[in-house]
């Protein structure tokens, strides 16, 4: 990922509040969901259980090719890291989730 083209912008996607970043050749969002936990993950295909720091998480590729890492916070809340870019975005999405995770309760 290259440098950010602009400042992060607030966004609301469904029930999630988050921020979107637009690095060159990619897009990244970090969304906080306060009304649904990991059991509410809806994926079009295979979902992989992963551990990010001290949190359980789920990783999957969305219909548009974005990689989503949903990090569980409580049974009814999670933080979704979504990365779309060239090549396989999942290794970078996992790395970003590792940077976000220490800030979570």
TrEMBL record:
- Which Pfam families does the record match to this protein? DUF3558
Q: Which InterPro entries match?
A: DUF3558
Please give the name of this protein: Uncharacterized protein DUF3558
Q: Which source organism does the UniProt entry give?
A: Lentzea atacamensis
Q: Which domain of life is it from?
A: Bacteria
């Amino acid at each position: 990922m290259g440098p950010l083209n602009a400042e992060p912008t607030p966004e609301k996607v469904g029930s999630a509040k988050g921020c979107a970043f637009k690095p060159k050749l990619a897009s990244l969002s970090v969304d906080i969901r306060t009304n649904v936990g990991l059991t509410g993950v809806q994926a079009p295909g295979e979902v992989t259980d992963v551990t990010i720091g001290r949190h359980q998480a789920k990783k999957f590729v969305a219909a548009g090719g974005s990689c989503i890492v949903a990090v569980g916070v409580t049974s009814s809340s999670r933080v979704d890291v979504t990365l779309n870019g060239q090549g396989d975005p999942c290794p970078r999405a996992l790395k970003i989730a590792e940077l976000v995770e220490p800030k979570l309760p």
